[in-house]
Amino acid sequence: MEQALSTLISGLPEVPAEKVDLRRMLNLYESNKLDAEEKYKGKLVSMQGSVKHIDDDYIEIIPNPSDQFQQSGARCNVLASERSKISGLANAGHVESELGGRSNARKIRGSRIAVKSRQLFFPWARTGNHLNIELIEGDDISQEATSAQIIRGRRVKVGDRCRIDTIEYGESLEVSSKATIQNQKKT
Questions:
Q1: Which residue has the higher pLDDT, 84 or 181?
Q2: Confidence of residue 178 (pLDDT cuts 50, 70, 90)
């Protein structure tokens, strides 16, 4: 599986990837950039983490677990010839996400989609958790701490700290008093 993923992202022949602890790599980079470059530059690596952002030409990954203050991570560039393969990463049957900071995405599509703001020890720290997205589309959608241009679903629940430009819903719509909706339309 890792070799297939390395081929997908790099477009190069299958080469065994070196397993890397993302947090250790970042700590080495912060303490000694030259040592980090010597150890990792130009090597094919495999790492685990949380996806912070998916774009057409790169994916940002942060260490897992992380708190809402985690800013640094790995930016994985995707070859132009392979970009169409990452567009499906945000399409799934069931999507459940717990926000641990600020996240960005273009689209999420699935039958059931739930985005929640991570519960933290300090209640004031929760306000940093937020998703910015263009489109969410599914049958059952439940959102917290989200700014979206369009949400389109059959049953939609909009929780606290959401700012939605347009909601199109089929059967039901629940909106928190702590959410802002510009336009809503029953389809």
A1: 181
A2: very high
**Residue pointed to by tokens 């070196």:** 18
Q: Which two tokens stand for residue 19?
A: 């397993």
Tokens 């992202």, residue? 9
Cα(126)–Cα(36) distance, integer angstroms: 33
Question: In the predicted model, what is the mean pLDDT of the chain?
Answer: 76
What percent of the chain shows pLDDT beyond 70? Answer: 65
Q: Give me the torsion for CA of 156, 161, 165, 168, rounded to 10°.
A: 0
Burial of 4 (0-12, 13-18, 19+ CB in 10 A): exposed
The DSSP-derived string for the chain is: -HHHHHHHHH-SPP-PPEE--HHHHHHHHHH-HHHHHHHHTT--EE---EEEEE-SSEEEEE-SS--TT----EEEE--GGGHHHHGGGGB-SEEEEEESSEEEEEEEEEEEEEEEEPP-SSGGGGGG-EEEEEEEEEEEEEESSEEEEEEEEEEEEE-TT-EEEEEEEEEEEEE-TT-EEEEEEE-
Place of tokens 């983490």: 49
Packed helices 22-31 and 33-40: angle between N→C axes, nearest 10 degrees: 140
Per-domain residue ranges of the chain: 2-86, 91-186
Mean per-residue pLDDT for 72-81? 70
